[in-house]
Amino acid sequence: MRSGRRRRGGVVLQVPGLYGPRQPLPLRAHPLPGESTGSFVNRLAHANGLGLADFLQRVGQGVGSSSGDAARVEKYPQYTEMYVNQAGLEYLAVLAGAPAAVLQRALPGLAPRHRLPGDGDAVWKWPWQPSEGHLVRCCTRCAEVRGVREPAWWLVSDSWRVCARHQLWCDDSRTEPQGGLSLKELPEVVAAHLERARLKRQFGRSGEELFADAFQVAADWWRSMPMVLRWVHRAWACGLEDRSIRVMPLVVYPEAAQLAQLMLQFEQSDVRDRDACGRWLGKAEALMESWDLDVQAGRGPLLDWLHRHRAPSDAEAQPAARTRRVRLPLAPGHSRLASPTGTLEARSGLS
Asked: Cα-flanking dihedrals φ and ψ of residue 193, to 5°?
């Protein structure tokens, strides 16, 4: 008879149809919010004095070419991510001493869309790069607050993430410093991140998509004129090369946030005719001039955005839709998003 057990509220329960571990490992490792499955599994194994190969024997059978090389996977957690099928998820939950639902809420790599196929034996796979997203080094201070002393990795959409609490820029760089780049000399970057969070909190996905548009425009500006002094100075403040691809999202973040606010004004306007577009473009170009950007070189992305948003949708034209704006009424251009997930630039309707 196939059987296993699931722990719930301190009690180990039988799970019909499941072979495998029947009780948690002696020592627990609590998952960090947004942590990669591979990072969590490594920490759980290490906490119990196990090598990764020994731990994985308890989770099921590995599939795929890289899955058989546990020693190499353990050596490079910054490159690899672990995926499991349903039975593998149950095994991992038993070993971790936590319900599968709790692990899924904390570890994005365990989301249903990443589940390996197969309802039979437990299997796991460890490809050399995530099927979606980027492995970004966790803020060391956030990890330490939760009792984590060894390196841990987030699985996030972008190749970078801001920790506003500790004023750190964390990214997927494999070079030093791995503890994050200090933003103490760049409070405008932290403020930009908070503005992005505000838009998402206030308008949901629509707010995130609008910020993605602004970020895409700012990224295009950087690619055509990377030596703008304010961007160079921000790069230097973090000890980075001013023309490196790594530095781009960091240095343009503040301008993207301010442009997003201007775009928001246009999106919420009841009039988007030719004259309104001209007035908005004038405001955007005035911002560019205040940032010492070449207006002629940077007008193209703004015109592209206006072209997609110049006319309101039918729903916006109705008086009832204007009286109460619980969510941001976006123009038709936003219906052509490349992806609801992915990087900021991928989520922009301009990409």
From this structure: -65, -40
Contacts of 316 (CB under 8 A, 6+ apart): 270, 322, 329, 331
Please state, in angstroms and rounded to a whole number, the distance separating the CA atoms of residues 269 and 225: 31
Residue 58 exposed, middle or buried by CB count within 10 Å (0-12, 13-18, 19+): middle
Measured distance CA(83)–CA(78) in Å, rounded:
15
Distance CA 143, CA 147 (A): 6
Give the other-Cβ count within 10 Å of 227's Cβ: 9
pLDDT in tens, 264-301: 999 888 788 889 999 999 999 999 999 999 999 999 99
For the entire predicted model, the pTM comes to 0.81
Alpha carbons 7 and 24: distance in angstroms, whole number: 8
* Rounded-to-integer distance, Cα 247 and Cα 159, Å: 11
pLDDT tens-digit map of 249-269: 999 999 999 999 999 999 888
